[in-house]
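Review this:
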Amino acid sequence: TYAPKLILLDISDINCIRDVAKEILNCYGCVDILINNASMKVKGAVQSISLELDKKIMDANYFGPITLTKAILPNMISRRTGQIVLINSIQGKIGMPFRAAYAASKHAAVGFFDCLRAEMEEFDISVSTVNPTFVCSYYHQPAPGNWEASIWK
């Protein structure tokens, strides 16, 4: 067994993900199970959500998990074993009003991990996507004009 090690990671900061993955692999040598379970969402009409916020949601919900997965994947492939899990959302299958950025990012993630599942079969790496219905998340009402505070984390 290994002593637990806390490694902080902002999944929306794509630039630091590879370094964190390297740190994990240097510490433990491998990752047997990777569970991608981070998410950001915002509620609002399409016309009221900035493109900047759309991109931040996409970074956290799509580019973050695939960047981390791609950083860990070569180790799993070389060992010909591993499990990758994406905890996603039902909104990755169906869209809802006032959740366009979130649903789009979740749809993209489903597409990526579905393709990955087919590609990893030959390496005996299991890829699963879990799409639960609504989950209670921490949320607080933002001050007017503070879009970043309106993000559910």
User: Anything to note?
Assistant: Strands lie at 33-36, 82-87, 125-130. The two ends are 31 Å apart (CA to CA). Residues 44 and 98 are 5 Å apart (CA to CA).
